[in-house]
Amino acid sequence: MNKKLGLAVAGALVAFSSAANAGITIPAGDWTVDIGGNVNAFYTHTSGSGVTANTNSVQTGLLPAALGIGAKTRQNDLDVAFQFSLFTGVNASSADNLHNSGSSAVSNGGLGYNSLNIRQAFMSVGDASWGTVKFGRDLGTFGSDAILSDMTLLGVGAGGTGNGGSSTLGRIGSGYLYADWVAQIQYSTPNWNGFQAQGAVREGLGQLDNNNMGFDGKVSYSFAANDVTGKVWVSGITQKIQNGTAAAPKERTAEAWDIGGKVAYEGAELVGYYYAGKNMDSGIGTFIASSTSTSALGDNDNSGGYVQATYKLPTIGTKIGASWGTSIIKSAGQDAEREAWIVGAYHPLTKSVNLVAEYNYLEATPATSGAKTEQKTVSLGAIMFF
Fold first, then answer.
1. Structural domains of the chain, ranges and CATH numbers in brackets
2. Exposure winner among 30, 119, 254, 312, fewest CB in 10 A?
3. Quick one: which of 222, 291, 288, 221 has its CA closest to 256?
4. pLDDT in the model for residue 97
């Protein structure tokens, strides 16, 4: 299976092949068990007008540390598999309350714990002749290629302020919307000479009465010609969001579409991505939550995208990259925007360990105040896959 952490890590390993590893495979009767994961930690320093003071922390990056356990077999002419992946942070202030303390000062002290997040728990049944059906919790279809193509998946990007959470933001909210990990039933077609399609019925987020489902889908084409490889994709999502009360919820449609592509040639890779929609962005690229407020929900328009260029230096294998991206929310004549420039270097110390150095400049203008803020984050650390 060699899923390691499933789609998220698989995407990281595709983008940074120097980090690839075979995982730990164990024959177990008719099954083949695969154990994989990653451990990472970064020193981050953040300064600027968007923070109350300079912050310093040792913390997890965009990809949380994780342990993944999966297995596959062939039964009754069907490929059967399952995957569980446990994600966590490394720092004490990873947004937990395990010792029943509401005080951040205490929870970041000697008894500080980190949180455990089981993001993947799914089974799949399929065959190469007709495709695969997945049942369970996994990365959403819409927006998945955007995050899997983000070079900061091996680093920190934005959000390295040491203020809680087992993951930073990377480029989420400043170039793409978070695909998130959701309960779903997903069908994937076979790969027809590079063409593939996916469609999913998923749990409805932002719900008060749990009456609505969500739907997303994607069509993609992967190609290879001589030394040129690449992929293009289009995906979309639609569902409802609610506020008010469960007995009388007020609803708005949340929907979006995106288009993206990447091409690689002799160590160089370019990525381009764009999305547009409405009622999809809470302000930092995550989905809008339900609210018990009795005020009416207002529609807002969302758009954004990013461009990214990376190059793998010959002989030494260090991958250097730069990217720019923005996310815009338009509501009642007010615009909120988050724009980020990121540069990074990712050096393969071994085939399993990458040393990482990044600089992220994030400029944010919230619609509520219009006061522009700046955050500058320097991060240094390492990530290991096994």
1. 7-385 (2.40.160.10)
2. 30
3. 288
4. 41
